[in-house]
Each structure stands twice: as structure tokens, then as C-alpha cells.
Amino acid sequence: xxxxxRASVTPPFLSHDLTKxxxxxxxxxxxxxxxxDDAGLLRRYTDEKRVDELAQLMxxxxxxAILVERVKDCAFPFFANGMQTQEICALALGCDPREVSxxxxxxxxxxxxxxxxxxxxxxxxxxxxxxxDLTIFPLFLHHTFDGQAYxxxxxxxxxxxxTGDINDGIQRLMYRSKDLLNIDMRAANxxxxxxxxxxxxxxxxxxxxxxxxxxxxxxxxSMTRVPGAHIDGWDKLGGFLGGPxxxxxxxxxxxxxxxxxxxxxxxxxxxxxxxxHDEGPYGEATGTYGTEPLAHNWNVKVDCVxxxxxxxxxxxxxxxxxxxxxxxxxxxxxxxxxxxxxxxRAGVHVLDVHLPPxxxxxxxxxxxxxxxxxxxxxxxxxMLTGSHHQFPKIAYVFDxxxxxxxxxxxxxxxxxxxxxxxxxxxxxxxxxxxxxxSITMKQLPVSITKIGFDCTMPLGxxxxxxxxxxIMPPIEQPADVEPLTEDEIEDKLRELLQQSPxxxxxIVTYFAxxxxxxxxxxxxxxxxxxxxxxxxxxxxxxxxxxTEFVPGTRKD
Length: 556
Description:
- This protein is α+β, with helices and mostly antiparallel strands.
- The chain folds into 3 domains: 3-323, Electron Transport, Fmn-binding Protein, Chain A (Pnp Oxidase, Chain A), CATH 2.30.110.10; 346-466, UbiD C-terminal domain-like; 486-550, Arc Repressor Mutant, subunit A, CATH 1.10.10.
- It has helices at residues 29-38, 54-59, 86-93, 100-107, 191-201, 216-222, 233-241, 331-345, 375-385, 407-416, 486-499, 504-510, 516-526; strands at 42-45, 65-68, 78-80, 115-117, 125-128, 150-159, 166-177, 180-183, 206-212, 246-249, 256-258, 263-269, 277-279, 295-307, 313-314, 350-354, 363-368, 394-398, 424-430, 448-455, 530-533, 542-544, 549-550.
- A 6-stranded antiparallel β-barrel has the order 6-7-8-14-12-9. Strands 16-17-18-20-19 form a 5-stranded mixed β-sheet.
- A hairpin with an 8-residue loop joins strand 16 (350-354) and strand 17.
- Helix 6 (216-222) crosses helix 7.
């Protein structure tokens, strides 16, 4: 179904209209899975599946979440693809699919202090010490060249050793042994990596908690953390919930996790060591294995595992033959929200921001209403530099009459409104996600030249030449029209044009219901006495005149 035809679905757990400040309770992952099922956005597999079959099941369902109720040799149901479409994100946010980026931008600026609770369902089962065994989870080879199985939908929770602020962000964990994982913290702009480097400088191991999976709303919140902003991650989660988030203390580390957590791993990132452990390769959001497939990273020692009874294990789809339609889609609305807020702060009248999924985060479109001569270029500059995620590499800006969710309209505007000589913006030396295989630098840190394309019409000119030749829709026919003779139609047409100039569209609409041959013959009889308003494109209306090209402005 085309995105324009999809109606927004109100989640059953919404307490009231979001536009009036709705509170969205911290539902469990199980409740979220049921909400997806109720909305027709989930495919259930009730027959038993092997772990080696799970990757293909994710690949086969690019437009739906999946739940495998029974996994051979594993006690946990398997949930995946839970973040990979605009409809799923819209359901989580309780908004129309086309409002996702604006809604994320709005909520990301709101914060509520978290509330500590005594206990939570994620404490129903507690496993510590030598009893920890990560093979209880459905471990499998996701991509053909991956170095090992990954726990890849883990929200990595750490604390800034200086401010005490909590950070949560989604990072991958590679299996090493039953209580040991690798963690990829090479993205130096991520707050979790910044925290890790701070502990490394102190020659201490960093306490960590990992929430495996969770409702999509919680995951969206974790994508909007801004390094250096000194905003506690749980206060930020409250902004997305519309009220304070409830959190509970961990069992073995001085950290808190959301009270609706499903599965929690507790332990330490061994930051007292250097980056000395092998990690990777791993199929990335780009659809490749990144620029450094076999990396040096830290280890994570897991000392405790807690989970709720009947917990669901969540995994993120990534890579494959349609990398833009995987759980990495959740990156798109987070970046869109970033850019929407950035454009607003830059004083640009922004209407929509959209990252086409197939671009894998690296191309962005913005629909704006230009009012000043520099708005288009200013918008491009903001888009190319304004997201802490370091995307996009390529940006386009369009007028408000272009539907940026419709690739045919986008391509049309690129073809006919973009002028390479004056519409191109190049910005060298920009941050870029180091996974981009087009980067020529051999080691971190990296940068790249980014490019923007102005596909808007120039301001202050007669832009009739840019008008789109849209199909005339059927004219609504009035009921009980009294038929007129050609003479009567001619008289009425003369009277109509004496009042003010009229386009042919206005004329045929005015005479709707009359036999069209009568209208055309009556017009033909009057035509020698008509001229066209030559300065009034794009329709150049007819008027009573003794010359065919009539100068001047139209006054209705």
C-alpha cells in the first residue's frame, strides 16, 4: 500500500491525544508485539524454527515485524524487524506516518526527571556469577562473513563518570564465551564511547547494563541522545513517554534501567585495557561490512542476567539485499527529527524531512516554504552539518508543492528545477559515518566533502515556467442544470468575462452541466473579441479585448 493511502493507527495504549500532551505508558515488549499484531504489522510463526533459519525469516519480511514463538533448543521466543518501517514508528509515536520526523523532533526537546521504583518484572529471574550463560539466548550467524553471533539489539547503558548522567545507545555485542562479549565503541561521537574513553583514562572498567530489545518508542528515544548536552538518558525517555520514565536499580552495578525492560545484562566494559581484542566482521546498515571489518575493540564481562518470566528476545535486522528496509530504518526518523529541529532553529520554514530508506541514511530531502533569498542554501547547509549522527552525505531541498515521499515527483523536480551552475552546494571537511566505503582516508578520524542540491524555484521571479502540468480532475456536475442555448451561453460568457478575466478551466467549470459542444461553439463565436492576459501565467486568462495579447495584471 502506498504511504499516502495509509491511515494512522491509534495505539490502544494511548491515554489521550498526543497533540494535547498524551502520556504513553511504559508498556512491555510483549504488549508492544501485541499492538503490532493488532495493527496488522506482525507476522507470527507458530511452528518451531532452528536458529540458522532466523536470518532468512527476517530477510523475507522487509515490511513486517516477525515473532517466532518457538526456537529449537531455546526457551525464548524470537522477535525481530520491530523498527523497520515508517508505519511501525508512527504506531509507536501515535502519529501519522508522515509526521514521524516532526514528532521525534518535538519530543526530543522535552525532558522529565525519571522516577525510581523498588522493583520491576525484569527482576523475576536473576542469574549471577558462574551461572551466567549467554547461550540461553538464540545465537546464530546473521551474515555470511560475520565473525561470530551477535546480540545486536542491545541498548548499552553507561554513566558519565564526571556528571553521573545516564546514556543509552544501541551498539553491537559479539559473542566470545558464555559470559564474555565484544563491544564496538569505535564511533567516537557516541556518548557511550566518550564515557568509555573517560573510564579508560581513569584506568578503570566501566559499569554497563544492556537492555536487550524493548518497545520501539524506547528505542527511538535511545537514538536521539546528543553528546555533551548533559541530558540524562532517562529524562529524555520521559519526553518521548510524555511523563517521567520509571527506572529500577541494577543488581550488580550502579546503573538503572527502564522498569519495562525485558532482558538485562549487567557487567563491565573492560576499559582498563587498551583496544586489544578482535571484533567483527559484521554486516552493517550500509549493506556492506564497513571500512574496517576486523577491528580492535573492548571486551564486556557479563556478571548478571535478569529477565521477566516469559521474556521475548529481540534481534535487529540489518544488511541483506534490502538494507534500507531493516531495523536500521529506526536511524532514519531519528536523523529526520534531528534535521527538522535544526532547520527550524536555522529559521527555515520547514514542512517535511524525509530520508528515503534505500539511501541507508545518506540522502535527505527537505520540503520548505522559502521566504528569503538564502533559505534554500541555508537549508542545505543545515542538513549537511546539523545531525549528530553525521548523516546525510547528500541533501536535496524542494518547494512545498513537491511530495518528497513520492520518488517520481522528487526525480521530476531534480530534473527540471535544479540548475547545476547555481544550485549546487559543496562543503568540504565534514564529519561522516566511518562505515561509508567511499571514504579514502585509511584511519580515524575521517571526513568527506558533502553536497547539496537546490531544487527550488527562484524567489522574486515569475515562475510560471516551473508550473507542473497536472491532469485536470473531473468537474463536479451540479444537479438539475437548466440547459442553455448557444446564444444564452455566449451572452453569459460575455457577461462573465466583462466582470473579470477567466481561465479556460474557470470557464468550463462555470458552465458545468451544459452540453460541451454548445459551450465550445459559443466560445468560438465570441473568440474574435477576446484577448489573453499575457503577463498572468500559468493560465493566461481570457478577457474582452481588441488585441490578442493584453498586458497588465489580473484584478478579480
